[in-house]
Amino acid sequence: MSLNATPSGERVHIGFFGKRNAGKSSIVNAVTGQELAVVSDVKGTTTDPVTKAMELLPIGPVVIIDTPGIDDEGALGELRVKKTKQILNKTDIAVLVIDSQQGMTEVEQELVALFQKKGLKYLIVYNKIDLLADKSALAIDEHVCLVSAVNKEGIEALKEAIGKLAATEEKNKFIVADLIQPNDFVVLVTPIDSSAPKGRLILPQQQTIRDILDAGAVSIVTKETELAHTLENIGKKPALVITDSQAFAPVAKDTPLDIPLTSFSILMARYKGQLEGAVYGAAAIEALQDGDMVLISEGCTHHRQCGDIGTVKLPKLLEKTTGKQLQYRFTSGTEFPDDLSAYKLIIHCGGCMLNEREMQYRQKCAADQNIPFTNYGIAMAYMQGILKRSIEIFPSLHTILN
Predict the structure, then answer these.
(1) What pLDDT is attached to residue 73?
(2) Which domains does the chain show, CATH number per domain?
(3) For 382-396, how does the pLDDT look when each residue is reduced to its tens digit (9 = 90+)?
(4) What distance in Å separates the CA atoms of residue 106 and residue 244, rounded to the nearest whole number?
């Protein structure tokens, strides 16, 4: 996968925050070398978060986010401020831009405290230093950069500082490569139905194939209707079968018990750091009662089709499994409620379009409010009696379902 094709969820998210007219948009344009954001002397020019996926040297693939002023006023301003704070949930590196002539005010101090509370890596950027006669009054430490967006002073140093913080975000994470050996055969079961994207595979399937190739193993892609024939004729016992959640039941039936079986959804939960919590959360399905509300949330905003897994298949399977009449709320994209008290269970997609920080934030919101949280594939495997088999490849989880 080329850097230009790097999915948003795999990019370092860099958010620029600050008061109106501090020069956030000018700094964004100077750092990126592009006119990504509209610049004006009028306060509040940036009215909504501006997001751009791009390559930023020396970092690599990033998502740049320019946010509205944190001191925006009025009812609409309050909504913008709320949206700005929500951006922090998916921000890996926060850049706080301050007008050096005004210095740090209580508003910026509150933002720094919020960065620290959320465990964010951050930089404080004093802008407009070309207009500052005396720089000695500015408190300088490892978090602080002095710049001028107008004459580009300090911009390269700022990019290097961001790059150093981004380097600490690098992790040796694998979807499946650490579970297999070079030259292993791995069979991927990918149903092609009305919800499958025309002419391509969905992102988790693409990422898994790349991970297998990086491990020096062999990926064999088939549909659930051809799985039995594939296993009989590949000439070698596969090290692992990985299935789409929607085909769990027929794939489990056709996969011999001596061949490990799991799903893309389970692997993505592990990749996002959520697997253990999601396995625990699936057990809450047994406790659902008539009238309980279930939140079913997706990270992307694709057009839902007939037979959609989130709005159709999951509700049907839930009611068949529990025998209860349940209520549902469906969300997608960045929409995720702050108050989860109305829900007895949250079932989330695998989150391939969301970065790890946002997925962990959503799970933590649920944990803080004592709401069980699981994902599509884990919930479906649990309801079809397949989950225990599907997590056998992870020894640390063996005790959860015993």
Answers:
(1) 67
(2) 3-167 (3.40.50.300), 177-267 (3.40.50.11420), 277-383 (3.40.50.11410)
(3) 999 999 999 999 988
(4) 50
- The contacts found for 383-386 with CB under 8 angstroms, 24 or more apart, are 383/285, 383/317, 383/318, 383/320, 383/321, 384/248, 384/249, 384/252, 384/317, 386/248, 386/249, 386/252, 386/261
- Residue 261 φ then ψ, to 5°: -130, 135
- Each residue's pLDDT tens digit, 57-102: 777 888 899 988 887 766 666 776 677 777 888 898 999 999 998 8
Strands 60-66 and 50-56: antiparallel
Contact 91, 14 (CB under 8 A): yes
State the pairing for strand pair 185-189/144-146.
unpaired
CA-CA distances (angstroms) from residue 170 to 56, 104, 167, 173, 204? 15, 31, 5, 9, 20
Question: What pTM was computed for the model?
Answer: 0.70
Q: Which of 258, 263, 331 is nearest to 299 (CA)?
A: 331
Q: At CA 89, angle to CA 83 and CA 92, rounded to 5?
A: 120
Nearest to 102 by CA among 21, 46, 28: 21
According to DSSP, the residues that pair with 328 across neighbouring strands are: 294
**DSSP string for residues in 335-395:** ---S--TT-SEEEE---TTS-HHHHHHHHHHHHHTT--EEEHHHHHHHHTT-HHHHTTT-G
